[in-house]
Amino acid sequence: ELGADVIMFDNMRPDEIREAISSLEARGLRERVLLEASGGITLDNVSEYAASGVDVISVGAITHHAVWLDFSLRIV
């Protein structure tokens, strides 16, 4: 109602997200915002989050244990 463009559901379970989306729909606000799920999402449970009704899913777990490479770039 105050003009948000994006709502991030951080560290919420899929059932909690569905409940929040239902509340937005009941107020006629669902189509006004982009909905993102983040936090605690893994490749094992991503399908549950996809089924919750969000538009975007952030999966940081795929990079948490990545091997890092340290390099620099010189611009001349």
UniProtKB/TrEMBL annotation:
Q: Ranges for the Quinolinate phosphoribosyl transferase C-terminal domain?
A: 2-74
Report the domain of life of the source organism: Archaea
State the UniProt keywords alphabetically. Glycosyltransferase, Transferase
User: Cross-referenced Gene3D superfamilies, in alphabetical order?
Assistant: Aldolase class I
What Pfam family is a match for this entry?
QRPTase_C
Q: Please provide one cellular component term from the Gene Ontology annotations of this protein.
A: cytoplasm
Show the GO MF annotations: nicotinate-nucleotide diphosphorylase (carboxylating) activity
List the GO biological process terms.
NAD+ biosynthetic process; quinolinate catabolic process
Describe the family membership recorded for this protein in Swiss-Prot or TrEMBL.
Belongs to the NadC/ModD family.
Looking up PANTHER family in the UniProt record yields:
NICOTINATE-NUCLEOTIDE PYROPHOSPHORYLASE [CARBOXYLATING]
Q: What is this protein called?
A: Nicotinate-nucleotide diphosphorylase (Carboxylating)
The species is Candidatus Syntropharchaeum butanivorans
